Amino acid sequence: MKKTSKQRRIRKLKIRVKKLLRFLTYDIWRVTEDEVSGLRNSLFNIVKTIILSIRFFLNDRLSEKASALTYNTLLAIVPVLALLLAVSKGFGFQSIIENQLLEFFPGQKEIIIKAFGFVSNYLQEAKNGLFLGIGLIFLLWAVISLIGNIETVFNYIWQVKSSRSFFRKFTDYLSMVLIIPILMILSSGMSIFISTSIKLPYFQFILDPLMVTIFKIAPYVVTCLLFTVIYIIIPNTRVKFINAFWAGLVAGTAFTLFQYFYINGQIWVAKYNAIYGSFAALPLLLLWVQLSWLICLYGAELAYASQNVKNFNFEQDTNNISRRYYDFITILIATLVVKRFEKQLPPLTNEELSTNYRIPSKLTSQILGKLCDIGILCEVVNNNEKIHAWQPAMDIHKISVGLIMSRMDAYGSEDFKIDRDFLFSKEWEILLKTREEQMNTANSTLLIDLQA
Predict the structure, then answer these.
(1) Which of 50, 112, 438, 440 is the most interior residue, by most CB within 10 Å?
(2) What would the DSSP string read from start to end of 94-155?
(3) H/E element holding 382?
(4) What is the gyration radius of the CA atoms in the chain, in angstroms?
């Protein structure tokens, strides 16, 4: 009897687990905003965002990209520090920047001090003769190359095909490097002001322990804000602040905890020192940079997932869509864009098409890309706001249903070694005849004449 009762409990548990797995893998992705309350919808979005970010992190093989960025970081660390310290030295704040770097990366003080020595020698040599021009070119190239590689990875995560132009890379990246010393100086000045004020007698009556706590967590706040700024600025697309902020909060927390355990994990550090001696700093630096990039890239995946979570609703249905329904949505999207252009209204974006007409966003992106490939639509970009929208690529009075279907039918490669001229000529001919009959029926129907 006890055995039977136990088997029932196990069976019930298995059923519940199966239901939970089905809900997480299928049912939750079919729930729309108007079907559930606001709180439940927010909870569902959080769950979907976490699932998507983990899936993307694994599928995008970000550990390999983090390794590549680790190599680029080590190659560019001295030129980047040289540019950073050269700018700060010009304003007379070099010592402040050095102290800030040591405080921000407490686990790498030994490496940073050595790097300062390399930077000092680098800048000293750069003052003399021909090396001044060559050194300056290499310095700028190393900085632009590093940030360019970071942007490439971020664009890959955000599925952005076009990167910044060379001119924008030069201006944007250089602006980032010039702004960093200013932010660090402001942060240092604020820290000095608060720490000095707390010690003054009359401030001790005004400032309560909460202010002291805020002062202690200031480095954590700065770290989270730094990640937030990175997630907004680096990708060549529009990233909403709220999505970047939550991703920055998660990445900043993970990085702070990693720093804490790295600094306090003296046992395994001692083992490395025993094995490698003074050379131990190099593998430890590689490990630290690699894990730091993994944290940063996961945050980028989280920002992308949270901003585009709606795009993955009905994902399994999108992957399983029938041919005729795919054609229907293709004609629908093309008609909406054409009618919008005819009325001289601003072009529609992916998000507007998906939200306004309840089309799964992933399917919208696929179809817009196909319509662009066959020359029916084209993408327009607002560089200032990084908004990608769509408009007709040809005369709207020539875009018919038949034209779209025939171009989609013929798009792609047909250069295979199947004998369609003799051995399978009947099959090929009947297919062409059937297609021709279908196209002739719809060939004269223009999109501007359809109701949309």
Answers:
(1) 112
(2) HHHHHHHHHHH-GGGHHHHHHHHHHHHHHHHHHTSTTHHHHHHHHHHHHHHHHHHHHHHHHH
(3) strand 377-382
(4) 29
Is the torsion defined by CA of 275, 276, 281, 286 positive or negative? negative
- For range 14-19, the mean pLDDT: 82
Which single residue is written with the structure tokens 């569902």?
44
Structure tokens at 66: 């983090």
The DSSP bridge partners found for residue 392 are 377
Three-state DSSP at 166 gives helix
The answer to whether 252 and 220 have CB atoms below 8 angstroms apart is yes
What secondary structure letter does DSSP report for 393?
S
Evaluate whether 21 touches 47 at the Cβ level (below 8 Å). no
Task: Please count the other Cβ atoms lying within 10 Å of the Cβ belonging to residue 447.
Answer: 25
Phi-psi region of 11 (alpha: psi -120 to 50; beta: other; left: phi over 0): alpha
The one-letter amino acid code at 56 reads: F
Residue 296 pLDDT class (50, 70, 90 cuts): very high
C-alpha–C-alpha distance, residues 407 and 414, integer Å: 13
Non-local CB neighbours of 308 within 8 Å, separated by 6+ positions: 361
